[in-house]
Write a structure and sequence with these properties.
eight-stranded antiparallel β-sheet, two-stranded antiparallel ribbon, 18 strands, about 25% helix, globular
C-alpha cells in the first residue's frame, strides 16, 4: 500500500491478560480477550523498541482473526512516562471517518433512498453547472475555468474521482481557492454549518473533469452532507443510532463526552532534532487546536471528524468482513459490501493498488510487495492510525499511534509484517 499511506501518515511496558480466545459476538471486558503465541513476542519487542527509540510515544495494536481477538496490547505512554497508554484510550482517527461515512451512504443505497449514479446536484443544487480549473495564477490565486463534461455523481464521491480537491492539505490550487472561500478540512469548525460549506464548495471549480483522475479530496464531507439531507438527521445522530449503537461502538464520537475527556490521547509532533513533544496546536494552512474533539461543535466532518478506540473500530471492520452483519445486527447487504471492496476506478492510476467505494484495495501487483492478500481493503488517518481487512485470511489489523508526521513511519509496515508473520 506504499503510496496510499499518504494522508494516513501511515500508522504499545504492555498490559495483557492472557486468556482464551474471545469472539466479538458480545461486548465484553477487553482486558480478557487476548491470547499470545511465541511469534507475538517479536511484535511485543518491536513496539517496545519503537517507544525506547523515541519513534513513537505509545500505541495500540489489535489483531482479530475469524472474529476472535488474538492480540490486543498497548505500549508506551500517553502524556508522560508516569501515565502508561491504555489500550482503550481515545484516538483522533481523522480519515478513518471516511469509511463510516461510506457505510452510511451505502445503507441509504440499500434502503432505496439513492443511486450511485445520482448527480449530486439532485440533493445540493450548487453542484449543477459546475466548472473545472483550467489555469491558475499563484501570485493572486486568480484562475480560469472550463465547463464540466458531465455532472459529479455519488459514485464519483465514493471513489474520489469527482475532481474535488482537499482544503488546507491539498494541492496549492485547492488550498488557495478553498481558503479564499472559507472551506476547511473540517476539523475544529465552530462558525459554519456543513450544508453552508458544502454549498459554497459546489460553486467552486473542480480540480479536474469528473471520472478522469483519482484525487484525494473533500468527497466524504460532501457525502456526509448528503446523509444529513437524505436522512433528515445530523451525521452524528445517524452514525450513533444507525451504526455505533447497533455494533456496540460505545466509544466513538464527533464530540467526546466530558466524562471521557481524560481518555483522549495526547497528540505528538517531532521537533527539528527528531524528538517527540506534545503538541498544543498544529497548522494546516491555518491553526487547528489539538483538542477539537473536546470542544462542542455541530459541524460534523464526514471525512475526518471522529474519535474512537481500536476496539470500537475493530467491531466496525468485523461487520464489513462478515458481509455487513455483526452480533445479529445487519447494516449492509453482503453484495453491497462486495461492491464497496472491489476495484471501482478501473484503469485509473493509484500506485500498485486500486480503490473501491471508500477503501484502498490490494491488487495482484500490490500484493507482491506486502503480506496482505489480494482484495485486502484498508485506509487510515493523518494522526497515524491505520487499519487493514484481509478477507482471505479473515483478518482485521489495527495499529494506532497519535502523531502528526514523523520520520519513522516505516513502523506501520513493520507492524503489518510482524502481525502476518505471527499468524498460525
Amino acid at each position: 500500500m506504499k503510496s496510499l499511506l499518504l494522508f494516513v501518515s501511515a500508522q504499545l511496558l504492555f498490559c495483557i491478560s492472557a486468556s482464551s480466545q474471545t469472539t466479538v459476538a458480545k461486548r465484553q471486558s477487553v482486558s480478557a480477550t487476548v491470547y499470545s503465541t511465541q511469534r507475538f513476542n517479536n511484535l511485543d519487542k518491536a513496539m517496545n523498541d519503537w517507544v525506547q527509540n523515541g519513534w513513537m510515544n505509545g500505541g495500540v495494536g489489535l489483531i482479530m482473526q475469524k472474529g476472535k481477538i488474538i492480540y490486543y496490547k498497548s505500549a508506551g505512554y500517553n502524556a508522560a512516562k508516569s501515565q502508561p497508554l491504555s489500550k482503550d484510550d481515545l484516538f483522533r482517527i481523522a480519515s478513518q471517518t471516511k469509511a463510516v461515512t461510506s457505510v452510511a451512504v451505502m445503507m441509504l443505497f440499500d434502503a432505496g433512498k439513492l443511486l450511485l449514479s445520482d448527480p449530486v446536484s439532485n440533493y445540493i443544487p450548487s453542484f449543477k453547472n459546475q466548472t473545472v480549473l483550467k489555469a491558475f495564477n499563484e501570485k493572486d490565486s486568480s484562475y480560469t475555468t472550463e465547463p464540466v463534461k458531465r455532472e459529479v455523481t455519488i459514485k464519483d464521491l465514493l471513489t474520489h474521482t469527482s475532481g474535488l480537491g482537499y482544503a488546507q492539505i491539498g494541492s496549492k490550487e485547492a488550498n488557495a481557492i478553498y481558503g479564499k472561500n472559507n472551506i476547511t478540512a473540517g476539523l475544529g469548525v465552530q462558525d459554519q454549518t456543513l450544508l453552508g460549506a458544502i454549498t459554497r464548495l459546489g460553486k467552486l471549480p473542480l480540480m479536474h473533469q469528473p471520472g478522469e483522475k483519482w484525487t484525494y479530496g473533500l468527497n466524504s464531507d460532501v457525502l456526509g452532507c448528503l446523509v444529513e439531507i437524505i436522512s433528515g438527521q445530523s451525521l452524528s445522530d445517524f452514525f450513533t443510532t444507525r451504526i455505533f449503537k447497533p455494533l456496540g461502538m460505545n466509544d466513538t464520537y464527533f464530540n467526546v463526552p466530558k466524562e471521557k475527556a481524560s481518555r483522549l490521547v495526547t497528540l505528538y509532533m517531532e521537533d527539528s532534532t527528531g524528538k517527540l513533544n506534545p503538541a498544543d496546536s498544529f497548522s494546516w494552512n491555518g491553526p487547528i487546536l489539538i483538542n477539537y474533539p473536546l470542544t462542542e461543535h455541530k459541524y460534523f466532518s464526514g471525512g475526518a471528524g471522529l474519535t474512537s478506540t481500536a476496539y470500537d473500530y475493530a467491531l466496525f471492520l468485523q461487520m464489513l468482513l462478515n458481509g455487513g452483519e455483526l452480533n445479529g445486527q445487519r447494516l449492509l447487504g453482503r453484495n453491497t459490501v462486495r461492491m464497496m471492496t472491489m476495484n471501482q476506478i478501473g484503469d485509473l492510476s493509484l500506485g500498485d493498488d486500486k480503490f473501491g467505494l471508500g477503501f484502498a484495495i490490494v491488487t495482484e501487483k500490490g500484493s507482491a510487495d506486502v503480506p496482505a492478500q489480494v482484495g485486502t481493503f484498508s485506509w487510515g488517518g493523518a494522526f497515524s492510525t491505520s487499519y487493514w481487512v484481509d478477507p482471505k485470511e479473515k483478518l482485521v489489523l489495527l495499529f494506532y499511534r497519535q502523531m502528526l508526521g514523523g520520520t519513522h513511519n516505516e513502523v506501520v509496515e513493520r507492524f503489518r509484517a510482524l502481525a502476518y508473520a505471527a499468524l498460525n
